[in-house]
Amino acid sequence: MEKLRVSDLLTGKVAIVTGASRGIGRAIALELASVGAKVAVNYASSSGAADELVAQIVGGGGEAMAIGADVSKAEQIDALVSTVMDKWGRVDVLVNNAGITRDTLLLRMKLADWQAVIDTNLTGVFSCTRAVSKIMLKQKSGRIINIASVAGQMGNPGQANYSASKAGVIGFTKTVAKELSSRGITVNAVAPGFIATDMTNDLKAEGILQFIPLGRYGQPEEVAGMVRFLAADPAAAYITGQTFNVDGGMVMA
Ligand code: NAP
Known about the structure:
Layout: E1 14-17, H1 23-34, E2 38-43, H2 47-59, E3 63-68, H3 74-88, E4 93-96, H4 111-139, E5 142-147, H5 151-154, H6 160-180, E6 185-192, H7 205-209, H8 220-231, E7 243-246
Parallel strand pairs: 1-2, 1-4, 2-3, 4-5, 5-6, 6-7
Helix pairs in contact: 1-8, 3-4, 4-6
This protein binds NADP nicotinamide-adenine-dinucleotide phosphate.
């Protein structure tokens, strides 16, 4: 097992990472733990993978706990946040990372495909942010980081549901950034391009690489680095309402 090197950038801080059992969320949880944060590792069904990640963090000298909760169910999110508060007494960083795809062309898309993606990717972000912002408002501090996607900026055939959910996340990020700004809470989004995870496993790379100026898929750790920056003080304290692309140059504003 790879040894974790813990530095103190986020020592004493508590982070919740949704969808942290695999892929980008897992890399974010490891990254935040490696700079001293106590990390709540949320998952939907992969309890074994979440437990393994917690063991890796604890084995490396960090602190973490695994919490199963479906982000599309508001009551499960309220319970998750209560569990974190009971154990650690605060929440400094929320990373809304959990997400799914149900790709198909518009005319073949069933209402259930649409609804499942919106419920998880957009309503999940709403429920988690609402639950955590109550705590952050009392603390008068906090960092909320939402994982969006280039699909929410440029569209992508076969992803009407997914791109709508991710564009929604970007709009939500701007509004909540304005609502929470007076209490020292920042809200930003990170928009990955194609990152090598289970989500992109089945895609055919040849067709995609021509649209990526850097000519390769990104790695989960490359998204995690941006999240760590946005979570850290004082480096990112004056940044809110923004969307940062980690996409190999796919979207150039
Ligand atoms: P992934 O490898 O498929 O992992 C998804 C994670 O989300 C898993 O930990 C999964 O938990 C969790 N999850 C799914 N539904 C959930 C729910 N209802 N409640 C709680 N957790 C749930 O995906 P990924 O590629 O790492 O993607 C992570 C985020 O980045 C997503 O928001 C995705 O849209 C975004 N993104 C990814 C890419 C990419 O190229 N990979 C590009 C742009 C944006 P279980 O293990 O328990 O199922």
